[in-house]
Amino acid sequence: MWTRYGLMVPVMLAVAGCAAVPTPAAPPPQPAPVAAAPAPAPLPTPSRGWEERAVDAGSWRYDAGSRAATFVPTGSANPLLTMACSGGGIRLTSALAGDVSLRTSAGTDQIRFDGGSATLPSRDPRLDRIAFSRGRFALETPGGGALTLPVQAEIGRVIEDCR
Prior knowledge:
Layout (H helix, E strand, L loop, with lengths): L1 H16 L40 E6 L4 E6 L7 E6 L2 E6 L3 E7 L2 E7 L3 E5 L3 H7 L4 E5 L5 E5 L2 H10 L1
Antiparallel strand pairs: 1-2, 2-3, 3-4, 4-7, 5-6, 5-8, 8-9
């Protein structure tokens, strides 16, 4: 009996291992391509306000001997703006000329630059607006020239030294 079943078991296993491999049916139909929606037209971009402009690259330097703060652009030795204590006032020196708009987080004021400089009394509220402006202030000429400078401690130091 053993031999009869002994032979049957391997034969049955061999037959069980032979399974029919299903042949693939026709490939499923591809979905119809969907037309891409047209891209929306770009919105008109308003001109960037002074608060959104990049701050001029550079750094403020303070000189205690001359009681002056100078903003020097990166890679240059020529300052963009100097604020120096001069005879009870703060003298601003720059390449700007004429009526210049001062823009701070507190609002807009005017400063008159004659020959590249303007002098403000040491207690002028415009100086405090510069020192306490949120991160930056700007000086703009009617012809489109503009300086957008960071507010840093050197500005407040020269103002306090002059008071």
